[in-house]
Amino acid sequence: MHVENLSSRIGRWLLPPVCLICGQGARPGLDCCSGCEADLPVIDSLCLRCGLPLPATARACGRCIRRPPAFERSWPAFAYAGVLERLVHRFKFHRDLAAGRVLASLAARRLAAMGAHRPQALVPVPLHWRRQLWRGFNQSRMLADDLSRQLGGIPLAPLLSRSRATPAQSGLPAASRGANVRGAFRARRPGCRLRHVAVVDDVMTTGTTLDACARALRQAGVARVDVWVVARA
What we know:
This protein is an alpha/beta fold. It has 9 helices and 6 strands; from the N terminus they run H-H-H-E-H-H-E-H-H-E-H-E-E-H-E. It has a 4-stranded parallel sheet, with helices on both faces.
């Protein structure tokens, strides 16, 4: 038996995995028990374009028909509610990196179950350098890193940069969010073989930030942009 395998087994025996949601025993490598995973809120019917919850699944909701976003398809792993919302807050605002890892693991399992179209690369939503310095990390980059590992090594392509600081979208009314991020992102031109990417973020609310990212990527030559988010509000 390899030394690392033995030490790993001893570590699991001494410190068995604990579910971050209920505090009971968890499955190795996931830190979430099967019961809590089964209780996570999902979106059964949605707009396939922007992920908005609907009474019945549709190719596009009224808003997407009137003004189609620059991304082709949205894949929200969960609904932004209940315990899922609390996990996101622990990760994003309280620097609970373990919560971020379990969110990425759960999202990867859900995206695979949904049959999410596999992109050539994952593109995290960037933070302005001042906000990242204040927060200490970029939650979208960390989620993208973990999703890449969980889903067989999809390459990361940090093509986007934030060209100017903007007020947090969460503090603005929906009608002001589009103008807030208009022109806030720049994308470098990808390699000629990179035609399909997925932009990764933690939460999608109105979709304006992700639309701005997708527009920058499309202008840089990416043919198809999808959206992968842990949760849809």
